Amino acid sequence: MPGKLRRLSGQEVAAILGQFGFLPLAQRGSHLKLRRLGVEGRKETLVVPLHNELDRGTLRSIVRQASRYISEENLRPYFFGD
Predict the structure, then answer these.
(1) If we measure between CA atoms, which residue out of 75, 46, 48 comes closest to residue 59?
(2) I need a labelling partner for 53 at 20 to 30 A (CA). Which of 4, 17, 72, 78 fits?
(3) 19-28, pLDDT tens digit by residue?
(4) Spatial CA neighbour of 62 closest among 46, 75, 50
């Protein structure tokens, strides 16, 4: 994915993933588990730490995991800037 990774909070990432149908399922401490039903009713789950600012490596990992369920071209405008 080209471009520079934006600086986002955990709440912002959860809101972005919510636009793709991921809903909060559970929270343990500062980690929020999001889930949606995918193709053929399979459960698709992502975990987002609700920190004020996510480290770039953590954000990159979340984007990589989300790209298993959502195309990279759909994720790019939300997570990468020029």
Answers:
(1) 48
(2) 72
(3) 999 999 999 9
(4) 46
**Domains of the chain with CATH codes:** 4-81 (3.30.310)
| CA dist., res. 5 & res. 63, Å (int) | 10
* Terminal C-alpha separation, the chain: 11
What pLDDT digit, counting tens, does each position of 26-75 carry? 999 999 999 999 888 899 999 999 999 999 999 999 999 999 999 999 99
Question: For tokens 């020029």, what's the residue?
Answer: 82
State the pLDDT at residue 46: 97
Number of CB atoms found within 10 A of residue 8's CB = 20
User: For residue 52, which phi and psi values (nearest 5 degrees)?
Assistant: -60, -35
**CA 16/CA 81 separation, integer angstroms:** 15
DSSP 30: T
